[in-house]
Design a protein that fits this description.
With 417 residues, the chain is of the alpha+beta class. The protein has 14 helices and 11 strands. The protein folds into 2 domains: 3-350, Glutaredoxin (3-Layer(aba) Sandwich); 352-417, no CATH class. A hairpin with a 6-residue loop joins β10 (383-385) and β11 (392-394).
């Protein structure tokens, strides 16, 4: 999020987005939305998922430069790890900063970088997330990073299509071949425990929903791209807001065709998709306009010039038991309760990963990641980056001056000073 949203730690507030209301923006049946399970959940509407949609649909509104989204990422990783095989997941980029000169006309990206960072430190008191020792400059726009993640999502989509084709071929080969699963509902792709999760069906309903479907288990190429871009801001203090900086931040990501990504970020189709995301984010549901509540981030929609937009991150959860909007800073117990209220089947959430397994899966881990994923145990082979707040543990195979081992060593040296 932009530093202005972090101010006073009340900065990022979450609200509903595309799909949370009818096309006319009508309020839910029965009038104003009421309180749902969890202190920061708002009940939006009731209704069953469509026949061509996985059992539970989650629409995430976020931004690569949002400090509350950065702090919430370990909790969303936890959610996707435990419930991914029951979910479909769509990501909408709200473009928090399309032009820093417009959103913060009195601030300069370089001159006022320290002031932005100070606001992130206030948020980190609640999220326990890394904040850079030094912020070289504030991002002048989060559009380049949003384009990059959307381009990576295109590569994920092609990989998923190839996996589905392979599964169909196995089905045709006879009994015992891998097939699709009915457990997650129509349109879901078969998934083993910890696998990619319920995935995208190419339907008119999906095309009408802003954002892009991503692997529900949280192990897609685009998830790693988004993580690297956030680390470029909140760990290394060098936001990737130009093509050259994207190359620096994203070098060495396994499975990513970086040359193609750099071509695709200029694709008009991707730009149109981000424009749709931008517009949908600035059409908030009345339930979150003027919302107040306890905590550092109570979930109100935010003023953005002459418009009002959703805060980040916001999750809209749709299931057979209805729709819920998760707004604000929430613990995993609240998130679990909201999913179950929407119709997700309870699972054992006490299982943890071995530290090296978690590092191999996610490539980098924060202190909150360790607490939720490994019970607080540190991976043995990680390179540890010290930041102004809490460390980041990096897989030794990661490469690149920002995202990888070289960046980790530089970060540790700076922190030591």
């Amino acid at each position: 999020m932009s530093a202005g949203e972090d101010r006073g730690a009340a900065g990022e507030r979450d609200a509903a987005g595309p799909g949370a209301t009818s096309a006319t923006g009508a309020t839910p049946a029965g009038g104003a939305a009421g309180t749902a399970t969890g202190r920061d959940a708002v009940s939006v509407a009731a209704g069953a998922p469509s026949a061509d949609r996985p059992l539970i649909e989650v629409v995430e509104f976020t931004d690569p430069g949002c400090v509350w989204s950065w702090g919430s990422e370990p909790r969303l990783r936890w959610l996707r790890r435990h419930y991914g095989d029951q979910l479909s997941w769509r990501r909408v980029f709200g473009v928090q900063v399309d032009d820093l000169a417009r959103t913060h006309p009195t601030r300069d990206a370089v001159r006022d970088a320290g002031a932005f960072r100070d606001e992130w430190l206030v948020v980190a008191e609640h999220t326990d997330a890394p904040v850079p020792v030094r912020l070289e400059r504030m991002h002048r726009s989060t559009l380049p990073a949003s384009y990059a993640v959307r381009a990576a999502e295109r590569q994920d989509a092609e990989r998923d299509a190839a996996e589905r084709d392979a599964a169909r071929s196995s089905d045709a080969a006879g009994p015992g071949a891998a097939g699709t699963s009915d457990a997650a509902g129509p349109g879901a792709v078969a998934s083993s425990a910890g696998g990619r999760g319920a995935e995208r069906a190419s339907t008119a309903g999906d095309r009408a929903t802003p954002g892009t479907a991503v692997p529900a288990a949280g192990d897609g190429i685009a998830d790693r791209v988004l993580r690297r871009l956030r680390e470029s801001v909140f760990v290394h203090g060098r936001p990737a807001d130009t093509s050259e900086r994207l190359v620096e931040a994203l070098a060495g990501i396994e499975g990513l065709d970086l040359e193609r990504l750099l071509r695709d970020v200029d694709d008009p189709e991707i730009h149109r998709g981000l424009q749709a995301d931008w517009e949908a984010t600035r059409n908030p549901h009345p339930a979150v306009v003027g919302r107040t509540g306890p905590g550092p981030n109570p979930g109100a929609a935010k003023q953005d010039g002459e418009r009002v937009r959703y805060g980040f991150p916001t999750l809209i959860v749709r299931g057979p038991a209805g729709e819920q909007v998760i707004a604000g800073w929430n613990d995993v117990e609240t998130l679990t309760g909201i999913l179950e209220a929407a119709g997700v089947q309870p699972v054992d959430v006490t299982a943890v990963l071995e530290p090296d397994e978690a590092l191999a899966r996610y490539r980098t881990l924060t202190a909150e990641d360790l607490r939720l994923s490994t019970g607080g145990r540190e991976p043995r082979d990680a390179v540890r980056i010290e930041t102004a707040t809490t460390p980041l543990w990096v897989h030794p195979d990661e490469v690149g001056p920002v995202g990888g081992v070289e960046g980790a060593r530089v970060g540790s040296a700076v922190a030591a000073d």
